[in-house]
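Subject — a protein and its fold
Encoding — discrete vocabulary of local shapes:
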Amino acid sequence: MEVIYPRCCGLDVHQRTVVACLRLQEANGQVHQEIRTFGTMTSDLLVLAGWLAAHQATPVAMESSGT
């Protein structure tokens, strides 16, 4: 399978938390995955943004369901 995005993150958004799954593929083909949970307060979202920026994770895809 061809890798299109070697650095990306998926977000599952809930009312009180955001679960982030970061996937990074190195030049040798090895894949690393890290899952972290963040709160939804502004300070928590700033930590999430910093974490994504530090890992140069683009694009970021968001999923949210609810009423």
User: Anything to note?
Assistant: The chain has one domain: 7-59. Strands lie at 7-13, 17-25, 31-39, 60-64.
